[in-house]
Task: structure prediction
Amino acid sequence: QVVESGGGLVQSGGSLRLSCTLNRRIGSIYLMGWYRQAPGNERELVALINDSERTNYADTVKGRFTLSRDIAKTTVYLQMNSLKPEDTAIYYCYINGKRHGFAARQDFWGQGTQVTVSS
Result:
């Protein structure tokens, strides 16, 4: 249901752009964004955008990463610049929304895409 693309291997200082699309009908989307998990670490927030277009970034990526979305296409993008080896992780797309006919909001997760930054 959640299709991610754009991960890969890049040298330190380089850039990557991640994309994520929700391939199902949905009534309303409240949150879209990315989390990441490095080996031995817990999953952590990278960036989120809400339905008021307000963004929230982890301190470690502020000024380097930019989150944007195309709500009509239920797609969210993460532009990652000035990448560092410590950004190496599996990046997971996250979407929170409400399906037609359902009262409760649901979380949708992608399978994850590997980002590796070499020094």
Remarks:
- The CA atoms of residues 54 and 100 lie 24 Å apart.
- DSSP finds no helices and eleven strands in the chain.
- The two ends are 34 Å apart (CA to CA).
